[in-house]
Write a structure and sequence with these properties.
The chain is an alpha/beta fold. It has 18 helices and 17 strands. The protein has 4 domains: 100 residues, NAD(P)-binding Rossmann-like Domain (Rossmann fold); 61 residues, no CATH class; 114 residues, 3-Layer(aba) Sandwich (Cobalt-precorrin-4 Transmethylase, domain 1); 121 residues, Methyltransferase, Cobalt-precorrin-4 Transmethylase, Domain 2 (2-Layer Sandwich), CATH 3.30.950.10.
Length: 459
């Protein structure tokens, strides 16, 4: 994060604009919208800008910039087309410890202006840290299209009633009340302008919440976080993740996805590494039951899909036995995600009409897999967690009848920016990756579909 995002209170404070042209006018409108008093120094001034200055009972200095203009100024914007002058303003401001923004010169700025979505009192700021303002504006446009025009009215409605609700509900009920409220028919009535109807419905909803003396029922959300790319998280997964009081996550869940949870949620790492179980499965099961038993909403984030070699069935079995409500949110499996990002379709009418998923876990140095079934013609075999056992996998498939030139793909850190795809055959892949320091997690794909990688890969 190159800049710390903050919101700046300039109400009633004198802010100086150096420059009297169109650029200064654009910044002046933002300052006026936030309640600032304007001061402008420039040899000449645009009529519209002068009107803004007069409207705030501000000051216009019809002269060239001098450092004396900085006296008693709260914030300064250098908005001229003279780069040397703008830099001088920045230097003078820093000498006097006055915050400064230099338009289109982030290297001279203490603060920068973001692209803004204004639904006052809801304000959303989007910034590229000065690197790509056009991209920030594009993001603003996308967000703006999803935010109702009357969202600010809803924010004011909530703000006027926060103290009333806080006095009547405990902390947990308070949060759940407002979370339900913003997606309720009451909120829709507020944004439609039907405030009388909304107020009556609000009173009934609050009364019901107060009279419901039962402790909030805990619940577990078993969420598939996908194979790595945060953009593959589903809408439902994101919605439930942001409701959770506690988040249990494993090693395969990216930090970007964990960061999508509520800022005040408790994060519990329960990750496992190969042959090193940081938190035993039984302990994870116990934690889910314990947290939910305390009335908390618990998100259990699992890499890939929780029902594809994710032991999700074991976790929900314990919840069911203890009558704890749960929801299961499928995720993009590692097989699907990694294969797609590598340009390898798992099925293809010219190469494979079926897919077989297996795990490559070693037990006592050997693997107990139905090898003869895995060499079926026109079948794709996908091996999870098979990096260590790669030599055994290749050796056994050949020993059971697979041609040595059968194509193999080893995909490491799939769907992430660090994805690497190694292509070989059953007889060559082990030597090919021997000195490449391949990093887990990895996925192995065996079969004719691997031939399509060169023509279909977009990475």
């Amino acid at each position: 994060m190159e800049y710390l995002p903050l919101f700046f209170d300039v109400k009633g404070k004198t802010c100086l604009l150096v420059g009297g042209g169109t650029i200064a006018y654009r910044k002046a409108k933002l300052l006026v919208g936030a309640g600032a008093r304007l001061a402008v120094v420039a040899p000449a001034i645009e009529p519209d800008l002068l009107e803004l200055v007069q409207g705030t009972n501000g000051e216009y200095y019809e002269e060239r910039y001098g450092a004396k203009c900085l006296t008693d100024k709260y914030f300064v914007i250098a908005a001229t087309n003279d780069e040397n002058l703008n830099e001088k303003v920045a230097v003078d401001c820093r000498a006097r410890k006055v915050l400064v923004n230099v338009v289109d010169a982030p290297q001279h700025c203490d603060v920068i202006f973001p692209a803004i979505i204004d639904r006052a009192p809801i304000v959303i700021a989007v910034s590229s840290s000065g690197a790509a303002p056009v991209l920030a504006r594009s993001v603003r446009t996308r967000i703006e299209s999803t935010i109702p025009a009357n969202f600010g009215v809803l924010a004011n409605f909530i703000g006027e009633r926060r103290d009333e609700v806080r006095q009547q509900l405990d902390e947990q009920k308070l949060r759940l009340f407002w979370e339900d409220f913003v997606q309720s028919e009451i909120a829709e009535r507020v944004m439609m302008g039907r405030l009388d109807d909304a107020q009556e419905m609000f009173i009934r909803a609050l009364d019901h919440a107060v009279k419901n003396k039962e402790v909030s029922e805990g619940e577990v959300y078993l969420i598939g976080a996908g194979p790595g790319d945060p953009d593959l998280l589903t809408f439902k997964a994101l919605r439930l993740l942001q409701r959770a009081d506690v988040v249990l996550y494993d090693r395969l869940v990216s930090s970007e996805i964990v960061a999508m949870s509520r800022r005040d949620a408790e994060h519990v790492y329960v990750g496992k590494m190969r042959s090193e179980h940081t938190v035993p499965q039984q302990e994870i099961n116990r934690l889910l039951i314990e947290y939910a038993g305390e009335g908390k909403k618990v998100a259990r984030l699992k890499g890939g899909d929780p029902f594809v070699f994710g032991r999700g069935g074991e976790e929900i079995a314990g919840l069911a036995q203890n009558n704890i409500p749960f929801q299961i949110v499928p995720g993009v499996s590692a097989a699907n995600g990694c294969a797609c990002y590598a340009g390898i379709p798992l099925t293809h009418r010219d190469h494979a009409q079926s897919v077989r998923f297996v795990t490559g876990h070693l037990k006592d140095g050997s693997m107990d897999l139905p090898w003869a079934e895995l060499v079926t013609p026109s079948q794709t075999v996908v091996v999870y967690m098979g990096l260590i056992s790669l030599p055994i996998i290749c050796e056994q498939l050949v020993a059971h009848g697979a041609p040595g030139n059968t194509p193999v793909a080893l995909i490491e850190r799939g769907t992430t920016p660090d994805q690497q795809t190694h292509i070989g055959t059953l007889t060559s892949i082990v030597d090919l990756v021997a000195d490449k320091n391949v990093q887990a997690p990895t996925l192995i794909i065996v079969g004719g579909v691997v031939k399509l990688h060169d023509s279909l890969s977009w990475r």
